[in-house]
Amino acid sequence: MTKKIWINCLVITFGLALNYASAQTELTANRGHSHNDYKQNIPLLTAYYAEMGSIEADVFLRKGELYVAHDSTEIKPGLTLKKLYLEPLAAFYKSNGNHPYKKTALTLQLVIDVKQDYQHVLPQLLKELQDYPGVFEGNENPNAIRIVISGDVPKPADFKNYPEQISFDGRPYTTYTHEQLKRVAMISDNLKNYTQWNGKGNPTKTDEALLTAVINKTHQQAKPFRFWATPDSPNTWIVLEKLGVDWINTDKPSKLSDFYLDKIKLTYTSATPYSVYTPTYKQDGVHKKVKNVILLIGDGMGLAQIHAGLMANHGDLNITGMRNIGFAQTNAADAGNTDSAAGATALATGFKTNNRYIGLTPDNLRKTNLVDTLFGYGIKSGVISVGDITDATPAAFYAHQVDRAMSNEIANDLLQSKVEILVGSNQKSFFKNKNSNLLKQLESKGFQLNTNMADFGKQFDGKQLVLLPDSATRPVNKGRGDLLKQSLKHSLEILSKNKTGFFIMTEGAQIDHGGHANDLPFVVTELHDFDKTVEEALRFADRDGETLVIVTADHETGGLTLLDTDVKKGMIRAEFSTNDHTNIMVPVFAYGPGAEDFKGVYPNDQIFYKIMKAYQLK
Length: 618
Hints:
Blueprint: H1 3-14, E1 32-34, H2 45-49, E2 54-62, E3 65-68, H3 81-95, E4 109-114, H4 118-129, E5 146-151, E6 166-170, H5 178-181, E7 184-190, H6 205-220, E8 225-228, H7 234-243, E9 248-250, H8 253-261, H9 263-266, E10 267-269, E11 292-298, H10 303-312, E12 324-329, H11 340-349, H12 370-375, E13 380-388, H13 392-395, H14 407-412, E14 421-425, H15 428-431, H16 438-444, E15 447-450, H17 453-456, E16 463-468, H18 483-495, E17 502-508, H19 510-516, H20 520-544, E18 547-552, E19 556-557, E20 560-566, E21 571-576, E22 581-582, E23 586-591, E24 600-603, H21 606-615
Parallel strand pairs: 1-2, 1-9, 2-4, 4-5, 5-6, 6-7, 7-8, 11-17, 11-18, 12-24, 13-14, 13-17, 14-16, 15-16
Antiparallel strand pairs: 2-3, 10-21, 12-23, 18-23, 19-22, 20-21
Helix pairs in contact: 1-6, 10-20, 18-20, 19-20
């Protein structure tokens, strides 16, 4: 039967309805096949330390020795199978207590691709294997390294003529008897026999049916399946895994290993979405003076983070219900990439500055922030964070220092600030400040100190300093709860009593932490917590009718890229390009009176002036 006729029969047998839903269980790094491994800069060791479960070496027989090479013209002295693979693998096996890897659950097969003349190659191979008793006898010991013969192999009827120490790489279009199939370790084929798919996006539905059919046929024979000649990228690996492939063919073992080893941190599923608020839009975009502004800053929150949160919540967010959208350019004065200090200072003062600077221009001039500026017009302010309240973003709204790390000095700057409510953690910088009289001086300024949310909840007027223990601002996926939402809600209750209006900056601080950690579940759970806080702001704005809500970020963190999503399942899969900030523009969402002024593309320092314009203040 020709390959073409055989493939057509597969389609008829299995039907075009087959799809990704038939995929096998999720793979791990140990299901990677290091294709043409000898071409790596460091043969064997690159794949071995990447914990590949299958490593391939092409061999030729010359003058009684097996040489590793892709073509006979590439044969070089000393590059033998014994030296490059058998000896070091045997040494690893013994040092690991008779296991291929130190992690005893990991397995290993050495795939020897015979380029020609198997009749003489296999006897020589068996002879060489005798020097390593017990190491390469996977037929007798499941912990041993399995030897699989590929390429120029004997006919299936001749498998019985070779010891069971070696197995064979089968083909899907070859018919095997029950006994012959016992000698087949896996079944492989050229991807191009089924599709011209280049690894980008997905194969066509017709090709998908062909691919799934051959994999399913192999699984019905209780054998694992591998495609060779595959594109080699994360998207390819994802698609092949969904199709049900058991071995991922790769020339990038280290990258594939990282992809799977970090899978827990790069995959997130939220089975049950939370409901979102639908705004009334009655005052949205109306050109009139606002009384109040709620500025919500998702630290490190770029478009990818928002879209990740959107997909994980099954296609709905409070943020994405806001219709007026712009983009802010986040570069610092001294660098293309901003940190939170320069980014927040631009938002708080209307001036670009150097990284690490808090409330100062590049030439060290103090600039009045929104909190102090608005106080001159009778507008009271609150600054809230679910992180360290002396950290860069909240600090930019009440402090002036040359280095964001100067937490003691930043805490002491609160004495000069006009802020009414300050909520966050880092008690140490206040309780053990270099200024031993700081708390007494703050008390003399009218601040009421609270060290837990319960006590804060009992306060309904006056200046509030809420210094929480660090444990209270632990990540939300470690039990923080809705601290950010409740802090905003109670601050609104207090500040809304001010007849001339209020300004509140509310920071989702730990979206950034998840980006630095390259941890997708961390990012998304913090994004969802922030989004639920946005809901509280939108509800207040609708009730009040004179409140502008702005949602933006100081910068993007992590270079997040979404590789795969399933909005129905709330599943996302991603990669990060860096553990630092990026220069990517961040979105600006606005809702309420004056919201249309936040459309367009502009430097982030312009948000300060747009807020002042919304208040109709000079």
